[in-house]
Specification:
The protein is an all-alpha fold. Helix content is 83%, strand content 0%. The protein has two domains: 188 residues, Up-down Bundle (Growth Hormone, Chain: A), CATH 1.20.1250; 191 residues, MFS general substrate transporter like domains (Growth Hormone, Chain: A, Up-down Bundle). Helix 4 crosses helix 6. This is MFS transporter.
């Protein structure tokens, strides 16, 4: 007797086909500006992927301790946070394209010096310049994507932004882990010295330089110039909003947890678990690979559950894997915990970015984005220094434990604060 597919099977198949077709249609709807921006993001992330694996290890091999490394990393984050509001004002006055170009040039210049000098002062100063570059980018990117997309494909654009960033970082992580070994083999370099790491960092500069090209061809969508008095008026009115105050609080807590632990994963792998740079690069790139697949499901999850629920669920689900990471001395198990934590936790990034921009008015977007990142990165900087001090005194697991506590508190508050806000926003969107 011939067997026919069950009704449920056909329903699942039809739903899947429909979801894939809808996904493709929304990707095809990206504007020219959005596509050029995504190319820029991919190229920048290649360089950052190498930096992520190598730079901390390079600083330690120059003879500096974890406390100075923490000081440098904290300067990057604090300057990113404190410059966020001036960056938003500059973005509104100079335009999105010019702001991204300036960010890229500052990144190229700061990395060139950071990878060359051994002076404490210059390492600290150009960490600040790197932070300014990061501030210009993170304040501009969400605003640029909102202005160069429609509500139809916007969530997919934000997801593709994080997806391409993830792919680029993954390739950069893999390259960063392997380049030192390649230079050691071919150039007869001291394997425990800093030179192989330095050459690997130099190689990453090529991607930053090439990333200027797609930015040059972006067209400014409209004149974004605003009066300085209007910018300050928008800032003060935004700060009076209870919703914005809640966003600032939650992102400050997330930033505090982020700074305590995330900059030191490679240090923990290196010192506590005894992993080589090649192993660290493979583990980091594997985490990006898994993250790449999880990000594909973000738009589907948000359509079914809503943005706030998705954020809460994935952030809480990542915590057991972070605890697994620090509870074992076996590299393979720690790597599994790291990979799963990174993949699950980072699913919330495109949802947070999109939701934050949707619940505020158009004239507030750059300002709100700057306030959120100011709160986040300022606390990232302070807690990064605290995490470095803890590790310099031998407390290698304590920063990660504190991160778990902070993420739980931030997630619960986020759900309480914004579940009803999202429901109201949906009603408004349906009425338009």
């Amino acid at each position: 007797m011939r067997k026919y597919p069950s009704l449920n099977s056909r329903l699942v198949l039809n739903t899947t086909i429909s979801a894939v077709a809808g996904y493709r249609a929304k990707l095809n709807g990206f504007s020219r500006n959005a596509c050029l921006f995504l190319v820029y993001v991919f190229l920048i992330s290649l360089s950052l992927g190498i930096y992520e694996v190598i730079f901390n290890l390079y600083i330690l091999r120059l003879g500096y301790r974890e406390d100075f490394l923490g000081f440098m990393l904290s300067l990057v984050s604090v300057s990113t946070g404190l410059f966020a509001i001036p960056a938003a004002m500059f973005c509104d006055r100079a335009g999105r394209k010019n702001t991204l170009l300036l960010s890229c040039l500052l990144l190229l210049f700061s990395f060139s010096i950071l990878y060359t000098t051994t002076s404490k002062f210059l390492l600290a100063f150009f960490s600040v310049v790197y932070g300014v570059s990061s501030s210009l980018k993170i304040v501009t990117a969400p605003t640029f994507m909102v202005e160069n997309s429609t509500g139809y494909e916007r969530m997919h654009l934000f997801s593709m932004y994080y997806l391409l960033y993830t792919v680029g970082v993954m390739i950069g992580n893999f390259a960063g882990g392997n380049l030192p070994q390649i230079f050691i083999s071919f150039l007869d370099i001291n394997p425990i010295g800093p030179v192989a790491y330095q050459l690997s960092l130099y190689a990453s500069l090529a991607a930053v330089l090439i990333s200027l090209l797609p930015l040059i061809f972006i067209n400014n969508k409209r004149n974004n110039l605003v009066e300085r008095s209007a910018a300050f008026s928008t800032l003060f009115s935004t700060l009076r909003s209870v919703t914005i105050q809640k966003l600032i609080l939650v992102n400050g807590l997330i930033g505090m947890g982020w700074g305590l632990a995330l900059p030191y994963f490679n240090v923990y792998f290196d010192i506590v678990l005894g992993a080589s740079s090649k192993q660290i690069g493979i583990i980091f790139s594997l985490s990006q690979l898994v993250m790449m697949f999880t990000l594909l499901f973000v738009p589907i999850l948000t359509e079914g559950l809503g943005k706030v629920k998705v954020v809460a669920l994935v952030q809480l689900a990542s915590i057991p894997f972070l605890l697994l990471f620090i509870s074992t001395s076996i590299l393979a198990i720690a790597a599994f915990g790291f990979v799963m934590r990174s993949a699950i936790m980072n699913m919330s990034n495109p949802v947070l970015s999109s939701f934050n921009m949707e619940i505020v008015s158009e004239d507030q977007r750059a300002t709100v984005n700057s306030l959120i990142w100011m709160s986040c990165y300022t606390f990232v900087g302070l807690s990064t220094y605290a995490g470095g001090l803890m590790m310099a005194h031998g407390f290698y697991t304590l920063p990660f434990l504190l991160t778990c506590i902070l993420y739980i508190v931030a997630t619960v508050l986020y759900y309480i604060f914004f579940e009803k806000v999202e429901k109201k926003q949906k009603i408004i969107d349906m009425s338009l």
